[in-house]
Write a structure and sequence with these properties.
- The protein has 349 residues and is of the alpha/beta class.
- It has three domains: 171 residues, Peroxisomal Thiolase, Chain A, domain 1 (3-Layer(aba) Sandwich); 124 residues, Peroxisomal Thiolase, Chain A, domain 1; 34 residues, no CATH class.
- The protein is globular and about 60 Å long.
- The chain starts with a strand and ends with a strand.
- Bound molecules: acetyl coenzyme *A (ACO).
- Acetyl coenzyme *A binds next to α2, α6, α9, α10 and β12.
- The site of acetyl coenzyme *A has 24 residues, from α2, α6, α9, α10 and β12.
Length: 349
């Protein structure tokens, strides 16, 4: 069996910086509230028409591929994680394949929201281990700004999210110094509706047992997204923030400890923990619970907000570019999000 390693990493964030103060133009909020609750100071928003989830992914991928010392034609599989795809279908993987003029390789899209990138990495790791592929492009990219409720009604969600992309090239490892040691994936669908975007979808309120007004009044064939849903702002993400917080602070440390124990390590052995940038308060809680020093945890949510599937590869890329991750370092990635799903990956860089 082969081990896999990250051979190249890249990130892309749009130029457009949106500060907390900028958001007060649209909704009743404040820099103080946002910073105190989330640690976010600013985020990036993609150009409204010239940038998409896929175009940002392509920019991040170009850098990752170049740093891996290969060309797009060498990529033999794509795994793309996003919750904000260019199209409802087909997925973004095939759009990257087309945009980067790759061969007729397989392209897989992953819909695991905040833990999407770690899930994607785990899938790619299995393909490398079996010897099936040699150069897998793993991407996390999001264009949230296109579909958030910027009125005061949606402020608990919209202030949190930002746009951006991160990508890595996974290859078989040639030495024991650099390798993914293990990945750990979990889910609990009991609270699926606590952090969710219900529409467009085929659910017809089956799970929530809410009144059927949206669907009864929609003409046949137009129940996926009705006028009524839009009129009632039901086309935006919903989040019960406090419930997410409570679950996240339990599952984050759990899945990190699981990864450490599986490989015979302690929290003190971690060189750098890259937590999904959900909320600085969650990351601080996790740090405290595991007894990690400040230099063992990398956060950049203050600059980019929560970029969901892109947050782990963006943070990993920035940490590496800043010289905080060196060859042989023990790096732990961990994420928790909608589903709920959560995951970790322990690697020797
Ligand atoms: N600006 C000003 N006031 C706001 C805002 C805002 N942007 N958003 C909500 N409020 C108000 C609410 O209306 C409420 O007012 P009220 O008391 O008059 O009713 C008050 O602030 C408190 O609302 P809560 O939702 O209870 O706020 P809380 O203190 O829980 O903070 C937050 C909200 C930051 C979302 C918090 O619950 C949290 O961090 N949850 C974790 C969820 C998370 O991190 N999600 C990220 C995405 S999911 C993921 O990546 C895992």
């Amino acid at each position: 069996m082969f081990s896999s390693k990250i051979a190249g990493i890249g990130m892309y964030v749009p130029n457009n910086v949106v500060t907390n103060q900028d958001l007060t133009k649209y909704m009743d909020t404040s820099d103080e509230w946002i910073q105190e609750r989330t640690g976010i100071k600013e985020r990036r928003y993609a150009h409204r028409t010239e940038e998409t989830t896929t175009t940002m992914a392509v920019e991040a991928s170009k850098i990752a591929i170049e740093r891996a010392g290969i060309t797009p034609q060498d990529i033999d599989f794509i795994v793309f994680a996003t919750l904000s795809p260019d199209y409802y279908f087909p997925g973004c993987g095939v759009l990257v394949q087309r945009a980067m003029k790759m061969k007729e390789i397989g392209a897989l899209d992953i819909r695991n929201q905040c833990s999407g990138f770690v899930y994607a990495l785990s899938v790619a790791d299995q393909f490398i281990k079996t010897g099936m592929y040699k150069n897998i492009l793993v991407i996390g990219s999001e264009k949230h700004s296109f579909g958030l409720d910027f009125s005061t009604r949606g402020r608990n969600v919209s202030v949190i999210f930002g746009d951006g992309a991160g990508a890595v090239v996974l290859q078989p490892s040639s030495d024991d110094q650099s390798a993914i040691l293990s990945t750990h994936l979990h889910s609990d669908g009991e609270s699926a509706e606590i952090l969710a975007m219900y529409n467009p979808g085929t659910h017809a309120n089956h799970w929530t047992k809410e009144p059927l007004a949206n669907f009864d009044e929609a003409p046949i064939g137009q129940m996926f997204m009705s006028h009524n849903m839009i009129d009632n702002a039901q086309n935006f993400p919903f989040m019960d923030g406090p419930s997410v917080f409570k679950k996240a602070v339990v599952k984050f440390p759990e899945v990190i400890v699981e990864a450490l124990q599986a490989n015979g390590y302690q929290p003190s052995d971690i060189s750098v923990l890259i937590p999904h940038q959900a909320n600085l308060r969650i990351a601080q809680f996790v740090q405290q619970k595991l007894g990690l020093r400040d230099d063992q945890v990398f956060n950049n949510i203050h600059k980019y907000g929560n970029t969901t599937a892109a947050s782990v590869p963006i943070a990993l890329c920035e940490a590496w570019e800043a010289g905080k991750i060196k060859k042989g370092d023990l790096v732990c990635l961990a994420a928790f999000g909608s589903g709920f799903t959560w995951a970790s990956c322990l690697m020797k860089w």
